[in-house]
């Protein structure tokens, strides 16, 4: 009896020693997971130990659906900055998964298991959980197209000969960028990010000011037959609803720009108007970069 108890005690001590000697890694997803049809989705984690980033790991992950037998999905994750590890993994469907991570360093392997949910996306990107949809991109593509049509008609009215030829060639080159999804996304992200910053600073979009801006743009668009035709093709009610939403953001951003101009004038009372505008623009771009970096942006 004594020998049996001694053996059991030794085994227990050995087990406890084995558990306590291993690293106590904490694994967290850095962004939500969204299924992408026929495409591998980005998968990134952050590994910490005692709240400090863990570097130099070899990381592999194996996913399997909970309560459904669809096999397993494996991926190796490459080390990034500050304890992040990323890769791509292609799944068949959204749902709840179990993820088993193998974390290796110095020849020692540690296993970590977590439950996670892979969701069906509601758009092509999100900012702090608010989606940017294909409809949003279609609207921005149209806005860009309308501006090109205005430039085209204006060029034909004001130029001729070689100068007109050069203007038309430039406009034609810009048309090739209309389908650039990354450029459209960048436009949306810039606008929405700064509008969010304006709201954080306590600014509000005055409905009367928004309506005044809408009337200005209506008046401009009504001057160009090609522009009115494109709006009609898109759907006039849908277009002006989206335009009003956009101008709510624009009016918010204008207030941030006014703040920056006022600050630039105060800091440089002897500076000329052009220098003031340049200084304010530089500060605006710095603010934009800082704001974008502070937001949780997911691009699919």
Automatic annotation (TrEMBL):
Pfam families according to UniProt: YtkA (PF13115)
Lineage of producing organism: Bacteria, Bacillati, Bacillota, Bacilli, Bacillales
Start and end residues of each YtkA-like domain: 24-99
Protein origin, superkingdom: Bacteria
Keyword Signal part of the UniProt annotation: yes
Signal peptide: 1-26
Keywords per UniProt: Signal
Keyword Signal annotated: yes
InterPro entries assigned: YtkA-like_dom
Species name: Bacillus xiapuensis
Protein name, per record: FixH family protein
